Amino acid sequence: MLLAKTLRSSTLRLALLAIAIFGATVIGLFSYVYGATASFVRSRADRAIAAEEAVLLRAYDNAGRAGLIAALEQRAAEQPGGQYLLDASGIRLAGNLAAWPPALVAANGWGTFTAERTPQADGSLVRATVTTLSDGSRLLVGQPIDDLDAFGRTIETALLLGIALIFVLAGVASVSVTRRTVGRIEAINATSRAIMQSGLGERIPMRGSRDEWDQLAANLNSMLDRIEELMAQVKQVTDNVAHDLRTPLGRMRGRLDKAYGAEGATEHERALIGDTLADLDGVLRMFSSLTRISQIEANGRSETGRPVDLAEIAREVTELFDAAAEDTGGRLAVTGDEAVRVAGDRDLLFDALANLVDNAIKHGRDGGHVTVAVSQREDGGEICVADDGPGIPVQQREQVFKRFYRLEGSRRTPGNGLGLSLVAAVVRLHGARIEMEDNAPGLKVRLRFPPAPAELHQP
Amino acid sequence: MVSARRRILVVEDDPETAAQLVDSLSTNGYRVDLAVDGDDGLSRGRSADYAVLAIDRMLPVLDGLSLIQCLREEGITTPALIISALGEIDERVRGLRAGGDDYLVKPFAFAELLARVEALARRSATVIKETLLRVGDLELDLVSRTANRGGREIELLPREFQVLEYLVRNQGQVVPRAMLLQHVWDLHFDPTTNVIDVYVGRVRKKIDDQQAYPLIHTVRGVGFCVRAPS
User: Fold this and answer.
1) Cα separation, A330 vs A325, whole angstroms
2) What is the pLDDT of residues A194-209, one digit of tens each?
3) What's the gap in Å between the CA of A208 and the closest CA on chain B?
4) CB–CB contact B202 A277 (8 Å)
5) How many Å apart are CA B76 and CA A25, to the nearest integer?
6) pLDDT tens digits for A76-107?
7) Out of A92, A253, A402, B117, which could bridge B107 as a Cys pair, Cβ 3.0 to 4.6 Å?
C-alpha cells in the first residue's frame, strides 16, 4: 500500500530526475579525471622512453652505427625490461628483441606491442618509439608499461565503484525521503477522510519534531478547530432560531387545541379550528423536516456506524406501505437477498426508504407495481426502488433533490417537496450514492452503500 | 381514568406554555407543581415524590439535561419527559443518554403530551401480565396471538396484531403516531409520510367494518384511540 504510493509519488519522480542529472555530471567528471590521469601517466612513460632514445641517438651521432650498437648492447644489459632493436632492411643488428614486433613492422613514431615471452622478458605490454636513422636502419626503444596499466585500472575501478556507490546511496536516500513524505501526507489524507466520514472530531497526529510537517499539521489542526467552532456557533444560532420559533408556535397550537376542545363551540367553529390546526401541523412538519435535513447535513453522525440490515428495513417498509399501495390498487413487492449488511442509522434509513416508497406509490401509475430490490454486493449494499409510472425527465433528475422542488405534474399530490432532500441528506450521511435511472417505463432510484467495516460483521 | 393522587412536576420557563401545560394536565386529573427554572426544578424534584417529571430542554440557570443528570446522579429515578424546542435526532439521543425517558418536540398536541405522560406514569406502576385483552366486544388472545370480535375471528398479520395490541393496551388513551411507531416498529422519528394512518386504516377496516360500533378512532393531528362506547 505504502510502497505503491511511494512509487506513484511525485517526490520520488523528482528525486529520480535529480539522481539522473547528478549521476550524468558525476560520470562526466569521473571520465575527465580518469582520462587526465591516464594521459598524464602515459606522457611520463613517453618522456622516459624519449630520453632513452635521445641518449642512443647521441651515441649514433657521435660514433655512428658501431657506437650505437655498443650503446644498445650496454643499455640492454643495464636496463631491466628495456626493449631495444636496431635493424637494417629486415636484418637484426643489435638489441635484446629477437625480431621486429608484428604490430610495429611498418610503424614510425609511437606504438604499443606485447613482448614475446623470453627468459629475460615476460611478455608484458610495451610502449615503444620507432625512428628511422640517417643510414636507413630503424631503431626501436621501448619500456614495459604494465605497472602503468595496472595503475590505470585501479583508478578505473575506484571511479566505477564510486559512481555505483553514489547511485545506490542516492537511490536509497530518495526512496526513504519519499517514504517519509508519503507517510506524513498519508497521515494528513487519512485524517481528511476520517473527517469527511465521521465529522470534525479528528485531528492530524503530530510527531513533536517541530519540522515543517508538524507545522503544517498544526496549522491544519487549528484550521479544523476554527471550523468546528464556527459549526458549533451556527448550530447554536439554529438552535436558538428553532427555540424562538417553536415557542410561540407552541403557544398558538395550545390555544387552538384548547378552543377546539372547548364546550359551546359550534360545529362550524370547530371545523375552522380543526382546519387551522391541520395547516399549522403541516407547517410544523415542514419546519421539523427542514431542521432535520439541516441537522443531518451539519453533523449528526452520532448514530450512524451501527450494523443495520437493509433487507430487513426494506421488508418492514414494504409491509408498512403495503396498505398504502393497496389503496391505489397497486402492488408493492420486495425482492433480493435475505440480509444486506451496512453500517448506518436504522431510523434515518427507514425514513429515507419510506420516502422513496411513498414517492413511488404516489407518483407511480395508479394500480402500478412498485418493487424494492435489495442486494449484497462485494462493494457494499444496494437498494433499488422502482415504479412503472411516468418517471422523471433526465434534465430534472438533479433538481428533485433540491428543497421544495416539485415536478409540474405532481403539484396536486400531497407532499412538501422535502422528501427527496431528506433522502439525499441521509444518503450522503451514510457515504452512499444515489442514482436515478429510467425504468422504461417509470423511475428507478438506486442507493449504493459502501461495505460495512469488518468489525461490524462480528456479533 | 387517571388516579387523582398522581403528581406531576412541570419545569418550564415560558409562562404561557407553562400555564397551558398545568391547565391541560390538571384537567386530566393530575396534581401539577410548576418550577420556572432549573434550580427550582432540581430542589422540587429532590424533595417530593412525583409520578412524572416534564422538563423543558432549555431552562434558565440550569438547563434541562443537566437537571435530569443531577437527579439521576442522586439516585432519583422518577420517569422524565424532556420537552424540547430543539430538533430531533441528536437532541433526542442526547436527552435519553442524560437520563430522560421520553422526548417530545415543541410544539406538540396536548393529547400527545398526555399520552406520553400517562405512559411514563404507568411505567412506574406494576405491570400485570395479562393473557387476554378486551375492549367492547373485541378480544385479543395474547398467547395464541389471535383476535376475535363478537366471537368471529379476525385475520391479522403479526404486525397488525402488534398495532392493535398496543392500541388496546392503551384503550381510552390517545396514542400518538410517533409512539405507535416507537413501540411497534422501534423507530424514533416523526414519520414524514402519512403511512401510519394508512396502516392503521387497514387494521380499522378489518376490525370495524360491518360492526355495530367503531372501536378505533382517529384523533385529528395526533394519532389514534381505541375505546368502546360508554
Assistant:
1) 5
2) 887 767 778 888 888 8
3) 36
4) no
5) 83
6) 777 776 777 777 777 777 777 777 777 777 77
7) A253
